[in-house]
Amino acid sequence: MREVVEKKVLSENDRLAADLRQRYQSENIVCVNIISSPGSGKTALLERTLASYLPSHRVAVLTGDLQTDNDARRLARFGFPVRQIVTGGTCHLDARMIDRHLTELGFHGPGLLLVENVGNLVCPSSYDLGEHAKIVLLSVTEGEDKPLKYPGIFHRSSLMILTKTDLLPHVEFNPDLARDNARKIHPKIEYIALSSRTGDGFDQWLHWLNALQHKLQPHAAATNP
Amino acid sequence: MHEIAIASSILECVSAEAQKHPGAQLISVCVRVGELSNVDKDALDFAFEALTRGTDREHLKLIVEWCSRRQKCTSCSAEFDVQDFDLACPKCRSGQTACVSGTELDIAYIELEEEPCAKS
After folding, report:
1. H or E element in which residue A156 lies
2. ipTM over 0.95 threshold
3. For the domain that residue B28 is a member of, what is the CATH number?
4. How far off is chain A from B54, nearest CA to CA, in Å?
């Protein structure tokens, strides 16, 4: 006897992600989920982002790693609420972890929640965290064909950030080719190239984040001019 | 390598469905996996076997139905399989197409065998 099920394998995570979306909505939180390979510059991007905000800015960070609280310590220097999620071997963050750690962090909107996922281009793309946008990072020390090798995450991301552009004179990397490869997978993916070290291109990224807040929660965004 | 977590979610879902059929024996579970789902079929098979070995689910068979990426043209409505990352419509060459398949990670069905009715 065949019994039709037609259910998402990750329906339990999807249910918790839907609750998170509701929570973000009622608390006026805008959440972005930042995903990349290990070492593509997620933490460096967040450091410069936090450094650019005034102390009154409403922003918090949840950062995931298999082990250590090194990233949280790097990010806590800027005075904003930061919490490390140590997954203990799990290769991705899931909605349950975000819900628990957001509660323990005690961050309430209005404001911006930056989630730094575990360094991994594969598994995090399967888990909905209720975020308003997924952002994928690719550094110039990787290959231009990475979007073709890992299509799932480029298909699901709203924005692709090319990082470490200050290294371009020293590596053989064609930014246009990397962007075009990403657009073969996802024609509408937005693209920003920047260096978290020199700040080159950074204004465009800060503008993108602000525009997202204004679009989603105009009232809340007014508190983060 | 999150296939262990995926396999574990499949087994949880199977158990919940099986509870609706007390006494019936589970034969197989069919899972639809899209090429954009970032789930590897071999790794999923391996994880499923590792999690069921030595348990009462040991004989449960995992059937994986692979779904390649398909796009639908928003101009002429043609549906087509994507070859070599070419998302343009092969019929009218419009670049305006939308993804209609390839992201699946769904449990399609389970197969059960009802125990024969006890004679009274």
Report:
1. helix A151-156
2. no
3. 3.30.2320.50
4. 23
